[in-house]
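LOG
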Amino acid sequence: METKNAELVFIPSPGLGHVVSTVEMAKLLLHRDGRLFITVLIMKRPTDPSVDNYTQPISSISRLRFINLPTQDHTSSTEVLDFIDNQTTHIREIVSNLIKQPSLPGSQLAGLVFDMFCAKFIQIADEFNLPAYAFFTCGAAGLGLIYHLVWLGFEQNEELAKCKSSDVELSIPCFSNPVPSKVLPHVSTVLLSCFKRLTETKGIMVNTFYELESYAIQSLLSDSKNPKVYPVGVFGQSKHRKRAQTKGRLFSCALGLWGSFEEAQVKEIALALENSRSRFLWSLRKGGLQFPTKYQDFNEVLPEGFLERTKRIGKVIGWAPQVAVLSHPAVGGFVSHCGWNSTLESVWYGVPMATFPQYAEQQLNAFLLVKELGMAEAIRIDYKKDFEGDSPPEIVGGEEIEAAPRRLMAEEGGSGVRQKVKEMRNKSRMALLEGGSSYNAQSFFIEDVMKNIA
């Protein structure tokens, strides 16, 4: 009997974080099953070279193809849905052509897989009678929050703006603790309408693993109204060298692809690093509404004499190869913006975090890590960067910044944050082994896809 091959089209949102998560998931599926071929449609901004820098070195991987959609520019995250919407005609044409002539001879298009901001493309799947799946690039608790907000907005007709009052705590099914409204991401009516379409998919792969978010995953699985859930992560880390088990003494400070601070905040971070007397590596970049850029001279923003006084214990750089840093045995802690990719990388390498969220769902991730999982120390949980400049920036003092890393680095014994992170590091690896939770979730997804062409 002839073996059938299946092609999937992955559609990540623009931005390196979404692209990396999606492509690493695609690579893992290709490794798991030789009957799959995956085409990834790439949306990118002309001012952001990071996506090309990531995809070009891996463009020759067998059974993986990238198609670059026409470039367009936008200056604010508030326009991301318009940015995505403008690609509808191009995506429809590509899907139509793949149905007529699949990328791999003898294969059949078996479905579209899009991330949470691209959920409107379910209409294209419907037009061509194709199964639609989502790949949720955040965690299971984040997906549970979206379901809850959709329920509040569309079934309970509640004004979501009321939920943003700073003194309100909410009961959300995927969280065991009440969630302060101040850690919720801003979700507009338009964005909520986009997220609502996730419930129309055949299934959702979630970038997490069962042992990390067992409470949230059980909550999602218990609701039969929701699409199937496949907790398929973590992935993409196995090619990097194994981290030694010794306790590192160096602290890394990095705030993600879009992370940056006002000059006054930079000086407070510098004060904290200098006073801590800990060894450090600080990824510092100039921000704004455009893609962050490097400083020509760090002295223009750092306190006078800082680089000279700390040259024996620390180093300030621009962009940092984060995985290479976290995998180094010298690194014992990580001041993180709590982006979900960074969170999973920290877990994979067993590096405990001090939380300093900035935007999107990062405050929710910080709450999850500190309050739900006990796997991080808080510099702040609810800090938010105002990209629009509507209010004066909040400045967190150096003493407060210094305290959380000190607690992490001073921790000894077999309890507390460091021990929990170490235990979860081991569980993340077990999850990917044959018979592990993520391995099984990937198998269930592949089996479901193959049934589409049976």
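LOG (cont.) second protein
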Amino acid sequence: MPDAKLLTTAQAAEHLGIDRRTLARYAKQGLLKATVVLPSGHLRWDLDDIQRQMRELREQGKGG
């Protein structure tokens, strides 16, 4: 996925229409998996992947 544009947590959350803290909390709880975790601990997200994960969460009744 080298050509994919990865988003910060704030950018991904904005695309999803949720607060960045909610997205970070979902990641910390293991409900969502970031595409990349930087050495600093910051998360980077692929928009298509995070949208798929959010759909799956909704279908399971666990989020969003």
